[in-house]
Design brief:
Elements: H1 8-31, H2 41-60, E1 79-86, H3 93-100, E2 107-113, H4 144-159, E3 163-170, E4 174-175, H5 179-188, E5 190-192, E6 199-201, E7 203-206, H6 214-218, E8 243-245, H7 246-254, H8 259-262, H9 280-288, E9 293-295, E10 299-301, H10 321-328, E11 338-340, H11 347-352, H12 354-358
Parallel strand pairs: 1-2, 1-3, 7-9, 10-11
Antiparallel strand pairs: 3-8, 4-11, 5-6
């Protein structure tokens, strides 16, 4: 008879006890996904159908006027499409209402709200009925923010053929100048496409190629994932918020080639380097039409004391005429037209200086 300690049952028990530490150490690696969540296939299908309609309609040179839109014979008067990307209340709607007042024939509004957001405060008249259908969930460190912006662009392209400029904003953005100043800036800036060609309006989008974090951001999805479509020397970074000319808005919703790379989820371990919305738009436009972009943004953001990837958030005690004057200053040709990030409590102080400072040059 074999000794007790050589019994198969005893050996099995010993092996089980010895395996427990290994399981504890390896479980996180075995159970956690290698990448962050991907965009659901159903969302992709819905978006593709929307984008195709927008491109086809834009290519035909026609379109149906939506709420606040119109079509006239010949070339319609250019409009600015304000695209609000939000996951919370539009607290600054009263300030934007003042900004829009008297100029509704020159603008349209579109709001993409995260379905999970609970919007408590009712929007002002200009925002009512302007929430787009088909809004999907958004999350940091994912390409969902790109999808939401493309959804807004496509909706605006379909809604009104007079939409010529597309300004992407967040719920924490505020205007720094009156609407006529913005409108003159957008219409006056154009570049000569060459002899025999008409002059084209440029897009205001930040495009940078030498940021210290560019390497980590490029490889956030893994080695060689971006190749061959996006080599490292073509990879760019820029602000999430921009003003695109119409041809560039069409270019964005038409794109499939680069989108197939940028929609790839980042690796879990590279989450802190994953900001697809800050790369897709500047990379795409710099690869396809670099001379058609100013390479700077009209939206001022203060990164001097950023926390966890978020810029400085202005508080009520910081709001003043002096602050607005400082935020307007730009290293580009034109003054900043918008600024973020403002805490909701800033609405009162901002409204107090709206007529005397913000909406007055």
């Amino acid at each position: 008879m074999a000794p007790p300690y050589t019994s198969p049952y005893v050996l099995s028990s010993l092996l089980l006890l010895l395996s427990i530490p290994a399981v504890v150490l390896l479980a996180p690696r075995l159970l956690l996904p290698r990448t962050l969540p991907a965009i659901p296939d159903a969302d992709e299908s819905d978006d593709l159908a929307l984008f195709r309609r927008a491109v086809l309609l834009s290519s035909s040179g026609s379109g149906a006027g939506g709420a606040g839109g119109f079509v006239v014979r010949g070339r319609p008067q250019p409009k600015v499409a304000f695209l609000f990307l939000t996951n919370s209340d539009l607290v600054f709607a009263p300030l934007w209402e003042k900004f829009f007042a008297g100029h509704h024939g020159l603008l349209n509004l579109y709001v993409h709200a995260d379905p999970s957001a609970v919007l408590a405060s009712p929007p002002t008249p200009s925002f009512r009925g302007r929430f787009i259908s088909g809004g999907k969930a958004t999350a940091r460190a994912s390409a969902t923010l790109i999808s939401a912006a493309r959804r807004l662009l496509a909706t605006a392209l379909l809604d009104d053929p007079a939409n010529h400029f597309f300004a992407l904003l967040s719920q924490s953005c505020v205007p720094l100048h009156p609407f006529p100043t913005l409108y003159r800036t957008l219409l006056s800036d154009n570049n000569n496409a060459g002899a025999g060609h008409r002059r084209r309006h440029r897009s205001f989008i930040e495009i940078l190629d030498s940021e210290p974090t560019l390497h980590d951001r490029y490889y956030a999805r893994g080695d060689n994932v971006m190749l061959p479509e996006v080599p490292f020397d073509a990879f760019r970074v820029g602000s999430q918020f921009f003003v695109l000319a119409r041809r560039h808005a069409v270019m964005v919703v038409r794109d499939r080639r680069l989108w197939n790379k940028f929609k790839v989820p980042c690796l879990v371990k590279e989450k802190d380097s994953c900001y697809p919305e800050e790369h897709y738009f500047p990379t795409l436009l710099d690869m396809q039409d670099p001379d058609g972009c100013t390479k700077y943004t009209l939206t001022r953001v203060n990164w001097t004391d950023a926390v966890d990837g978020h810029p400085h958030t202005y508080q009520p005690e910081e709001v003043s005429g002096e602050l607005i004057g400082e935020l307007r200053k730009s290293n580009g040709t034109y003054s900043h037209m918008f600024a973020r990030k403002f805490a909701p409590e800033c609405l009162g102080p901002l409204m107090e200086i709206a007529d005397s400072v913000i909406l007055r040059d």
